[in-house]
Amino acid sequence: MSRIIAGAAGGNPLKSVPGDATRPTTDRVKEALFSRLESWEILQGARVLDLFAGSGALGLEAASRGARQVTLVEKAPKAVSVCQQNATLVNKALKSETASVQRGSVDSVLDGYFDEPTRTPRKTFDVVFLDPPYPLTEAELETTLYKVSRVLADDATVIVERSSRSPEPVWPEMVQLFADKKYGETHLWFAEPVQPE
């Protein structure tokens, strides 16, 4: 069973999505990931987007550790229900409505955050988690990352979690890789917006 590791909601168990359609992040990887993010001091007060959220474990861990606003994006009905239950649990522990769930495909939700006619984001995020399902192709991930790049705050961090057998994601020109780390079967990539010279 997954749980919130640390922070204001630390120790709370999280419901898991039934079946094998989702791939939960192990506690070991989650612990390593969040200790790294905390050492960079980017979680406190952050606006977080958790794409392909599954049970919502990554976004809700960020909420427990001081994120200001967390949006869990999921389209599978079972996963949406689990996300909602877990968000309710964490919000109760935090005594605030920090976490919310947005149902829909990742690409359509990202399109909704961007105003095409004015070419400006309606919403921006400081931290974005992407833990896409295995069937997602490299080309589909590239499209999603391009859409993510349009809604990033200036000093945002994007974290992509994939199988250690997957190739490095193709980054849009506005985003650059700055770190990566393998943990057994899991590979994490960390990227940030390219700053204008």
From TrEMBL:
**Biological process GO terms, please?**
rRNA methylation
The reply to whether Transcription regulation figures as a keyword in the UniProt entry is: no
Q: Which UniProt keywords apply?
A: Methyltransferase, Transferase
Coiled-coil ranges (or none): none
Matching entries from InterPro entries are given as: DNA_methylase_N6_adenine_CS, RNA_MeTrfase_RsmD, SAM-dependent_MTases_sf
Pfam families for the chain: Cons_hypoth95
Against CDD domains, the record matches this protein to:
AdoMet_MTases
Q: GO molecular function: any one?
A: nucleic acid binding
Give the PROSITE patterns listed for this entry.
N6_MTASE
Q: What is this protein called in UniProt? A: 16S rRNA (Guanine(966)-N(2))-methyltransferase RsmD
Tell me the organism: Glutamicibacter soli
